[in-house]
Every structure is written in structure tokens, then in C-alpha cells.
Amino acid sequence: QVQLVESGGGLVQAGGSLGLSCAASGSTISIRAMGWYRQAPGKQRELVASIGNGGNTNYADSVKGRFTISRDNAKNTVYLQMNSLKPEDTAVYYCNAISTTLLRSNSYWGQGTQVTVSS
After folding, report:
1. Which residues pair with 34 in a beta bridge?
2. 34-62 confidence digits (pLDDT tens)
3. Could you give the C-alpha distances from 39 to 7, 29, 64, 66, 75, in angstroms and in order?
């Protein structure tokens, strides 16, 4: 089992910056990738950014050049630095971890943190 605790988020004006962090605990040795998803009201949850154990990253087109995902493996923590925020970035942001064992792969989620960008 992996537990994820998010922090950060809040209210910011358009053009501003916010940072999110997500600390993993439990069976962290089994984690292969971590990432951030977001869900706006009335919309499906979507991938924002992900990072693998080797440091390889993947970003949604809508956030490329504005958001940066990073990971501190020693602290089992993943970060999302969000710059040049836009009102359309408003959503609940969820941390995700993918863990694998010999038999199965599991997906774990944080509780979510609200990010609101005012125009």
C-alpha cells in the first residue's frame, strides 16, 4: 500500500505561480512513476504531468513550458511548480503513484488539492 499526502494549492491571480507537493509513504520502494492529474468541474480527470523513476517526464500540451514536475526520491516526494497560471488551470489537482510488484500494478491517489486561478 502507498499513501499520498498533498500540500500546496490555493488561490492565485492569472499569471501567478503556485507549487504543489506530494509525499508518499508506505511501500514506496514499489513506486515506478508519480504524477499529477487535475479535474475541473464537469470535466474528466486529465493527466497534467508525470515523472518516472529514471527522471523521464511527460506533460500535457496545455501546460508545457509553464509547469515543471520534479521528484526527490530520497524524500519520496513529487513536486509540481506551476507558473504563468491561467483561469483554465482551475481544478482539483490529484497526486498519483503507480506501483508494481511481480504480480500486479496498482494506482494510488491523493485526496486532492484545489487550485483556483482568478482572471
Report:
1. 51, 97
2. 999 999 999 999 999 999 998 999 999 99
3. 17, 28, 18, 18, 26
